[in-house]
Amino acid sequence: MLHPSTELRTINPTIGAGVFASEPIPRGTIVWIRDPLDHVFSPEEFDALEGPIREHALKYSFVDGQGSSILCWDLAKYVNHSCEANLLSTPFEFEIAVRDIAAGEQITDDYGSFNIEAPLECHCGSARCRGVIRADDAERLVPEWDAQVRAAFPAVIEVAQPLWDFVQDPARVEAAACDPARLASVAVNYVGAEAGVHAARTQRPRGSSAPGSRR
Ligand SMILES: [Zn+2]
Is the CB of residue 39 less than 8 Å from the CB of residue 53? Predict the structure, then answer.
């Protein structure tokens, strides 16, 4: 579920739609959290999809650390990629703002964290654009993502959290906010080769559209 201060906007015919903050969202805010209405496909269920339904699921789902494909039921599936994403996944089943997000600013994820299988050409416009989003980006970027998440995490218990009721283990989250150095690595979100799971079939993950988009 996405934070309530978000809205879908059409960007242009090439990119399609994106999700924007309708009010300021401070660093540390839970902006997306998994909820029971999100559709979860096991690898076998996903592989059984065919035709246009499969295409739709490929475009709008992402693969979690267990290899399941998650199709978000709400606007979350339209969140675009940026190589300087303002949201990052945490070891919990939610994403936080890793910096202050202004009203009117686009909300972005790093698709390198979504267990993609095929490289995605990126034109996100960031000064730090990687040019191509690759399946192994997470292996290189986890330390940087961990640093950003740990720096933002103390604010989790300081800012308004409209999605707090959906947090599965609030005591653990509060403990992590008090001692972020002990926060587990976001690497738990990635399907490692050592796990023997290769479910990352998502060639065009959540919210992606044509080349030339924010990816
Ligand atoms: Zn980029």
Answer: no
Q: What is the amino acid identity at position 163? A: L
What's the CA-to-centroid distance between 84 and ligand 1, angstroms? Answer: 7
How much distance in Å is there from the Cα of 147 to the middle of ligand 1? 20
Which residues, 6+ apart, have CB-to-CB distance to 153 below 8 Å? Answer: 28, 90, 96, 176, 177, 180, 183
Whether pLDDT at 122 is above 90: yes
Distance 85 CA to ligand 1 centre (A): 9
What protein residues have CB closer than 5 angstroms to ion ligand 1? 83, 122, 124, 129
Given a cut of 90, is residue 191 above it in pLDDT? no
Q: Are 113 and 62 in contact (CB under 8 A)?
A: no
Tell me the CA–centroid distance for residue 198 and ligand 1, in Å.
Answer: 24
pLDDT in tens, 3-25: 999 999 999 998 899 999 999 99
Whether residue 155 is predicted with pLDDT greater than 60 in this model: the reply is yes
- Residue 48 Cα to ligand 1 midpoint, Å, equals 32
CA distances to 23, 31, 147, 209, 215 from 26, in Å: 10, 10, 18, 28, 24
Superfamily grouping for domain 6-195: SET domain (2.170.270.10)
- Separation between Cα atoms, residue 97 and residue 54, nearest integer Å: 31
Q: How would residue 117 be classed by pLDDT, with cut points 50, 70 and 90?
A: confident
Computed on alpha carbons and rounded to an integer, the radius of gyration of the chain in Å comes to 16
